[in-house]
Write a structure and sequence with these properties.
binds uridine-diphosphate-N-acetylglucosamine; binds nicotinamide-adenine-dinucleotide; alpha/beta
């Protein structure tokens, strides 16, 4: 299939591009580089030996997206294009709603004009909200989100479900990611956050490489075995392969369907720190700090539906995630800026 990756130069998009190309699909990328850079796409081409058609474009821009659909016969869209920093979304909610919702609306409108009938969407476990108890299953109702970023995901799921309801020929696949970490095993592509990382693993790896002096563990008084938060960390390459399966499933599917992409096994913050240290034989100094506002004690998937229906299951373990993160971070201490 010919797959348009909106936001495809980013962390998850670039890894998905590699897996799609290696599975024999063609890839077109549209990205405005608001949180990424052309070097990531160059490395996707280097890793696969294949060419990617790239458009520097804002996915909210109808003319730009229309042009992509006119110049390429697109079979399926994967919509990664969004802003994702939770704290920033609390400070700049309108910017988050504008960017995340508008990209979705523009894609749906341009898909309708061009007769494109398949869309795979990057949703998040955050839509389970505060009411549901893990392990989360796909049929649980969406819950109350703790921040505007989370609400954009919940709203976009609703918009996409409504679009599928109105057009019976449409296939909408909502992928709820748990906590993607790790990098391509080559160490050539990986997560390259701008400024101070919000998420745990990039913070750990920046401490290890000497860019930050220590990690603050956000709370050790949760009702969990070691008191620190539990999350379902998933290797980004497993997640990327999940997208290949979703795109292939969408080929003969209509309606809207949700899949969790997680491992089903939670790990604590201290387990992450200790596995990173042991796997890579490198110290990660840390201190215990207060809880972070909005954090849940525990979040993990029931991962059975994706295995049963998509034939997909995460294969990589926590040591693989820590090793590959370090290969990327140690080889690219300043991310793509040294590329
Ligand atoms: P990322 O920031 O690395 O990638 C997003 C890409 O979208 C970037 O390349 C950015 O430049 C681009 N983009 C943003 N707005 C755009 C616009 N208006 N027009 C064109 N391009 C635009 O993030 P990621 O980690 O790869 O996440 C991809 C998607 O998955 C996002 O929608 C994110 O919310 C979602 N998600 C991520 C996580 C995670 O932990 N990384 C978890 C759950 C869901
Ligand atoms: C966060 C977002 C979530 C988003 C996800 C992926 C919040 C409240 N939630 O999830 O909406 O979908 O990122 O982008 O921000 N931790 C530390 N020290 C740190 C960083 C994190 O102890 O410096 C802990 C956290 O308290 C948590 C775990 O590590 O227990 C994972 O945190 P993080 O990587 O930010 O992911 P989430 O909180 O699951």
């Amino acid at each position: 299939m010919n797959v348009l990756l909106a936001g495809g130069a980013g962390y998850i998009g670039s890894h998905t591009a590699v897996e799609l190309l290696n599975s024999g699909h063609d890839v077109v990328i549209a990205d405005n580089y608001s949180n990424s850079c052309p070097e990531a796409v160059r490395r996707v081409e280097e890793l696969t030996g294949k060419t990617v058609r790239v458009y520097e474009a804002d996915v909210r821009d109808h003319d730009a997206v229309r042009r992509i659909f006119t110049e390429n016969k697109i079979d399926c869209v994967i919509h990664f294009a969004g802003l994702k920093a939770v704290g920033e979304s609390v400070e700049k909610p309108v910017m988050y709603y504008r960017n995340n919702i508008d990209t979705t609306l523009t894609l749906l409108e341009c898909m309708a004009e061009a007769g494109v009938k398949r869309i795979v969407f990057s949703s998040s476990a955050t839509v389970y909200g505060e009411e549901n108890e893990p392990p989360y299953t796909e049929e649980m109702p969406r819950g109350t989100c703790s921040n505007p970023y989370g609400w954009t995901k919940a709203m976009m799921e609703q918009i996409l479900e409504d679009a599928a309801h109105a057009d019976p020929a449409l296939s909408v696949i909502l992928l709820r990611y748990f906590n993607p970490i790790g990098a391509h095993a080559s160490g050539r592509i990986g997560e390259d956050p701008q400024g101070i990382p919000n998420n745990l693993m990039p913070y750990v790896s920046q401490v290890a490489v000497g860019r930050r002096d220590h990690l603050t563990v956000f709370g050790d008084d949760y009702p969990t075995p070691d008191g620190t938060g539990l999350r379902d960390y998933i290797h980004v390459v497993d997640l990327a392969i999940g997208h290949v399966k979703a795109v292939e499933y969408a080929e003969n599917h209509t309606g809207a369907e949700v899949f969790n992409l997680g491992t089903g096994t939670p790990y604590s913050v201290l387990e992450i720190v200790n596995t990173f240290r042991e796997t890579n034989q490198i110290d990660v100094p840390y201190e215990i700090g207060p809880r972070r506002a909005g954090d849940l004690p525990s979040s993990y998937a029931d991962a059975k539906k994706a295995e049963k229906i998509l034939g997909w299951k995460a294969e990589r373990n926590l040591a693989d995630m820590c090793r590959d993160t370090w290969k990327w971070q140690s080889g690219n201490p300043m991310g793509y800026r040294e590329g």
